[in-house]
Amino acid sequence: MPAMDCPASAPFASLGRSILSLRREQVHSVDGGGHHDSPGGSYDLEIEAFQKHVADIFLDLASSSGDELLSLPWLRELLDGLLVCQDEFRGILFGCRDGRKVDLSRPPLDRFLSDFFERSVRALDVCNAVRDGVDQMRQWRQHLEIAIAALRGSGVGRPLGKGQIRRACKALNDLTLLLLDEKEAPCILSLRNRSFGRSGKETPQHRRVGSAGSASSAGHYRSFSGSVSRSWSAARQLQAIGNNLNAPRGNEVAATNGLAVLVFTMSSVLFFVTWALVAAIPCQDRGLQTHFSPPKHFPWAASITALHERIFEESKKKDRRNSCGLLKEILVTEKCSRQLLELLDPEIEFPLTEEKEKELRQGVGELAEVCDSLKEGLNTLERQVRDIFLRIVRSRTEGLDCLSKSHHCD
């Protein structure tokens, strides 16, 4: 993704900024104009308001039902929440308003910020991997569209023919191959597949697939390395983001006027969101075993920990264990395509009975609903991930600039 600035497009983000402005006015009114004499106290109030807002965002996300969890609308709400948190974080850390000047290069704040910016760089890689996963899901949708078009091509009142059934079966079988996780790939290697969208021109990668046999074929179909290297691992990246993510000690909080708490809170939010994205969206070498247990005294800890546990438990369910992603729409796609394939028995007799054709058309309708939700939801999700990428780049650039100058940010 290009490192360029981009304004927020989400209405939730605008709402978050309005809430932050209101809270700042409340902070100033509570201080009674005395915050110039007590900058630390003023920061304490703003950081407390920030943590309360983070807690409200994740409490709302945690209140979602099981059906809503890890759906595209839920993910959009999660990413909206992250965008709001990023805006508020930057506003407090780099605002330097009302005559206050903060030396970000002063220990131990410089160490907390350096660690945060290092996590941010790794989060950028996760954004790129998620974008590749979204592209992969678009490819799935193209196979769905082929199957739907084939089974609807006869028009209302006209019977389905063998050619239409064969074309739909081919599209759904190809989709099944693409949906399989790497762990399951060896069991289907006897099946040949031409992935959707390949040009007729043979590439070196295609020649390797054809000559190296089944093992390399599985690797080709499961590769999401459009923006990340083939050796890149989402599991290792998450582990690195969460590594040494420890709450600041009392003396560190005092030495930074509470800003160490601000950085720790934002680091925790960033880690959880990237972890949830990897859990939901197909990513290269997915893994969700990373430990995450923030201290309970933080107001947002309970809701984020509860969400982490719910998502992790979801990943251990039998029907999710070998899935390439926990997104609800992936589960529905797998279920609907499998049920429709069962109806499209190769030994099916023609002409179809009225009952059989009714079942097929009902299955096509369910598949079409999934296809429509993917078309709308994936475009929005990709825009949000791009916004997050750009915000991280901008925040990191501002922070590193302040650290390198070794004086108060302007």
Automatic annotation (TrEMBL):
Topology class, membrane: Single-pass membrane protein
Stretches with biased composition (Low complexity): 210-220
Transmembrane segments: 259-281
Chain positions covered by the region annotation Disordered: 197-220
Subcellular location per the Swiss-Prot or TrEMBL entry: Membrane
GO annotation, cellular component aspect: membrane
Top-level taxon in the UniProt lineage: Eukaryota
InterPro entries: ROH1-like
Pfam families tied to this protein: ROH1-like
UniProt keyword list: Membrane, Transmembrane, Transmembrane helix
Family note: Belongs to the ROH1 family.
Protein's name in the database: Uncharacterized protein
Organism: Zingiber officinale
